[in-house]
């Protein structure tokens, strides 16, 4: 299951653990001797630096697996371990990384092997003094790891050289382009300088215009203050006019009521006028008829007066005149009997 995990999915330390330093050795021992109830074993923190959050390098492992002693067989070892714990050595590092190693460490780890086998409990005591063969083997392993790391660095430097050469070509092309752009920018700069001179001339003209405008603005400000005073006066007059309008509205409302009343009266008068006109027409026709009758009566009276005057003067009448006289009297009597108008005489 753990083989399927990648390096990015594996965390060497917990997120809440933070170490500023670690215990690397004790006294003359290049590792940390751990004392138990019956024996003493070795522990090398330099082999697990990634668990402390530091960069892992190739540790010193000389006689690390052979250090296993029983207190019954070697009491001097217990005393030396006690003295070593009086002088512990701690290592601090300001550089903190997460799961990183040196370049030669992976190669050293592959060539070193999978691990060491702890000897049995009743094994013979081991000496703390390193043999020449162990020292030679350790130096050879370190030299091989150093050579491998150097080879890896050489390959990286060659790759960097190739990248730098390609970058140099691109930079030369970019330099040529920048030179062209520089020439274009110089031409644009000259044009911009000419435009700047023109703008300076315009600025001088605009500054003069601004001065004139400032003077005119001051005048307009004075006029505006006067206009504000006039506006205040107009507002006062407007308020008075509004009051007058309110009173006029009241008067207009009263007049509307009166107009409605007069309209109703006008309607009644118009109806009465129509009736009066009809009666006047009737009376006019009657008066015309009475006038005709009066004219006829007047003519009869004149005729009778003339005949009566002739009789009074003693003039003789002919037979025709006599018949005419009595005919007039008869017609007058008939007219008087048929007259139904206003009375023209007193009883």
UniProtKB/TrEMBL annotation:
Q: Which UniProt keywords apply?
A: Coiled coil
In terms of InterPro entries, this protein maps to:
DUF7745
Domain (DUF7745): residue spans on this chain: 2-112
Where does this protein have coiled-coil stretches? 147-286
Q: What is the name attached to this protein's record?
A: DUF7745 domain-containing protein
